[in-house]
Amino acid sequence: MASLEVENVVKRFGPVEALKGINLSADDGEFLVLVGPSGCGKSTLLNMIAGLDSITEGRIIIDGQVVNDVHPKDRDMAMVFQSYALYPNMTVERNISFGMEMRKVPKPERDKAVMEVAKLLQIEGLLKRRPGQLSGGQRQRVAMGRALVRNPKIFLFDEPLSNLDAKLRVEMRTEIKKLHQRLGTTIVYVTHDQIEAMTLATRIAVMQNGELHQFGAPQEIYDRPANTFVAGFMGSPPMNLIPARIGKNGAGVNAEIATADERTLRLQLNGQAASLENRVNSEVLVGLRPEAITDPESRDAGAIIQEVECLVEVTEPTGPDMLAVLRLGGIEAVSRMRSSSRVRPGERAKFAVNMSKAVLFDPETEQRI
Amino acid sequence: MSSIIDRPAATRGGVLGWLQVQLPKIVLAPTCVITIVFVYGFILWTTYLSFSRSRMFPNLGWAGTKPHENLWANPVWYKALENLAILGTLYIGIATVLGLFLATLLDQRIRQEGFIRTIYLYPMALSFIVTGTVWKWMLNPGLGIEKLMHDFGWTGFQFDWIVNSDMAIYTVVMAGVWQSSGFVMAMFLAGLRAVDDEIIKAASIDGASLPRIYVRIIFPMMRPIFLSSFVVLGHLAIKSFDLVIALTGGGPGFATELPATFMYKQTFTRNNIAVGSASAVMMLVTVAAIMVPYLYSELRAQKGVQR
Ligand SMILES: Nc1ncnc2c1ncn2[C@@H]1O[C@H](COP(=O)(O)OP(=O)(O)O)[C@@H](O)[C@H]1O
Ligand SMILES: [Mg+2]
C-alpha cells in the first residue's frame, strides 16, 4: 500500500537524454500504466522507480519519502520482467521463495507463503520443476508468483505479457486485473500495447521519446487526447485526424471538409463556437474516433448528431462490426458501422457523425484546441 | 511436352553436371583418406604394437599382454601417473578458479577491459615450448627469480622448486596455469556476458547482494562452461608433453615424468616400442573416457535444439 510521485525526473545516458523531465503520481491502490512506442523510456523510468537505475535529476517519492538513494531491496517493491528473468538453476519453488530467503524468513513460513501463491496462480503442480521445463505461460505465472509472494508496497510490471500468444495475453490481462481488484496494491505497469493500457489502468501516462504527452484517466485520454500523437497512438483503428478549415455561416462556426467528389462537408462546431471565433478561415484537424462516424441507425442517443452523405471507398468486415473507409479532407477516414450495414464500396451512403465527440487539433503545434 | 520442365536441373550437360554433383566428394576425399589412415589407422597400428615383440623397431611377432604387464611393473610409469594426477587436479582446478575469478572481475565493465583481456589471452598464443623455456629461465635459481632477489640484496631468498624432486611437478602446474587461465577467463567472460541483465535486476530486487547473486545464480548458470573448460584443460593435461620437455625434461631424475614423456622415452630412447605403445593405449583410453561422454552430451543437446 503506497503512493508514488515522480517529480521532474530526468535520465541521461552520456549525451543521450532518455527521459526529459517526467511528472507523474499514483495514489494508494492505483493501477498506473506507462504506455508508448518502444524506446520511449518506459523501462528506464520503471527501473528508476525500482532503484535499479540512478536518477540524473528530479525526485522519486514513495509514501512521502524521497527514495532516490534507497537501495532496490529496501524499497519494498516487486517486479515482473518481460523476459520473466527466472533463475534457471532453481526450481519454481526456490525461484518464488528466493526473495524471502534473502530476507531471512524462516523456512516454514516461506513454504506456507509459496503454497498460498501457487494455489492462487494454479501452479501447484509445477513447484518442483525448473524454468527450462515450463511453457511461456507457465513461466509468466511463476514470475508473477515471485512478485506476489513478497506482498510488496508497489508492484512493477515491465511488459509482462508481450511474450505470450494473443489468447493467453488476453487471459492473463484479466487475471492481472482481478489480482489488482483483490489485493488493492499500487501497480505501475509498462506496456506498448494501448489496449492493455485502456483495459487495466486507472490512470495512463502516454510517453514518446522520453517525454510525457498526457497523463490522465483512460476515458479522458481516449476522448480528449492532448495532441495528435496521443490521438493516433491510443485506439485501434486510431482516431481520424481530418484536415479541415474553420468556416462561419448563419448557423455558427463549422469545419469545412473536402470530400472525394469535390463537395464540401460542413460540420457544425457549436459546442466550441466561442473559442474558435479567432480561428475562422484557418486550418485545423478534426479528430473523430471511428465509432463517432456510424450508420444513422446506430447513432448515440442524446448526442449532437449531424448526418452527412459520403462516398464509401472500401469496406472491411471485422466480425462484430464493419469498418468503412471514406475519403475526407484528403485522408482515409475510418468509420465503424454495424456488421449488418448495407453500404457498398463505390456507393454513397448516409453517416451519422457524433459531433459531441469531436476534438480539434492545431495542425502546427499538434496540440488540442 | 512437360518432360522438359520436369527434368531435374542437375542432369543437364553430361560431364559438367556430373562434376557439379561429385566435386565436393572429390575435394573432400583426400582429407578423408588421410584422416582415416593417419588417425584411426595408426590407433589400430599402435594398439597392435602394444601386444607385439617390438623393441627398437616394430616387430609383428605376437607377445600377448607381456608389454602391458611390463608397463604396469615399471615404477616410472607409476610416478608418471601420480604426476598426472597432481598436475590434472591442480592445473584444471587452479586454471578454472582463476579464470572464473578474472572473468568475474572483468565482467564489472571496468575501463580498459579490451586491453586487460588481451594481456591475459596472450599466453595462450604461445606454444608450450616457449612457455616452458621462459619459465625454465625464470625458475632457474642461478638465472631467474632467486638470482633477482639475491641481486636486490635479499640473500636469504630461496626458490629452487625446479631442481627439487619433491616440488618440480608444481612448477609444471605454475607454467601450465599461466598459459591457460587467460583462455578459461575468455570462455567464462563470454558466458557471463550472455546472462540476461533482467535476472540480475530481479535478484537485486529480491534482496541479494552482488556476491550472492554471483554465487547463487550466475555461477550455477555457467555449468556448461565449467564442463567445456574441464574437457579442454583435462585433455591438455593428459597430452602435456612439450611443456614438460621444455621446462624440466622430465627431471630432476624422473620427478616430473608424465605419461606422454614416458611414452616418448620408452619408444624412442629406450628401444621399447611395445611398452611405449602400451602406455599410449592407456592414454587414449583415459582421454576417451573424458571425451566420449562429453561429445555424447553435446550431440544430444544439439539435437534437442534442432527439434
Ligand atoms: N544503459 C543504457 N545506455 C544507453 N542508452 C540506454 C540505456 N538504456 C536505455 N537506453 C536508451 O534509452 C531509451 C529508452 O529505453 P527504454 O527505457 O528501454 O525504452 P522502452 O522500455 O520504452 O522501450 C532508448 O533510446 C535506449 O536506447
Ligand atoms: Mg522496455
Model description:
The complex is a heterodimer of chains A (369) and B (307). Chain A has 369 residues and is an alpha+beta fold. Chain A is 24% helix and 35% strand. Chain A contains nine helices and 20 strands. Chain A has a six-stranded mixed β-sheet, with helices on both faces. The longest helix of chain A has 18 residues. In chain B, α5 packs across α8 and α11 runs antiparallel to α14. The two termini of chain B are 42 Å apart. Chain B is globular, with a radius of gyration of 26 Å. Chain B folds into two domains: 49 residues, no CATH class; 240 residues, MetI-like (MetI-like fold, Orthogonal Bundle). Chain B is mostly helical and 307 residues long. Classes of the chains: A alpha+beta (369), B mainly alpha (307). The structure holds adenosine-5'-diphosphate (ADP) and magnesium ion (MG). The site of adenosine-5'-diphosphate has 11 residues of chain A, from β2 and α1.
The CATH architecture term of the largest domain in chain A is 3-Layer(aba) Sandwich
Q: Percent range for helical residues of chain B? A: over 70%
CATH homologous superfamily (4th level) name of the largest domain in chain A: P-loop containing nucleotide triphosphate hydrolases
Over all CA atoms, what is the radius of gyration of chain A? 25 Å
- What fold name stands as the CATH topology of the largest domain in chain B? MetI-like fold
Compose a concise summary of this entry.
The complex is a heterodimer of chains A (369) and B (307). Helices cover 24% and strands 35% of the residues of chain A.
Topology (SSEs and partners):
The complex is a heterodimer of chains A (369) and B (307).
Chain A: E1 4-13, E2 16-26, E3 31-35, H1 42-50, E4 57-62, E5 65-66, E6 77-80, H2 92-102, H3 107-121, H4 136-148, E7 154-158, H5 166-183, E8 186-191, H6 194-200, E9 203-208, E10 211-216, H7 218-223, H8 228-233, E11 240-249, E12 252-258, E13 264-268, H9 273-276, E14 283-288, E15 293-294, E16 305-317, E17 321-328, E18 331-338, E19 348-354, E20 359-361
Parallel strand pairs in A: 3-8, 3-9, 6-7, 7-8
Antiparallel strand pairs in A: 1-2, 1-4, 4-5, 9-10, 11-12, 11-14, 12-13, 14-20, 15-19, 16-17, 16-19, 17-18
Chain B: H1 3-6, H2 14-49, H3 66-71, H4 75-106, H5 113-125, H6 128-139, H7 145-152, H8 168-193, H9 197-205, H10 210-221, H11 223-239, H12 242-247, H13 259-268, H14 273-306
The structure holds adenosine-5'-diphosphate and magnesium ion (MG).
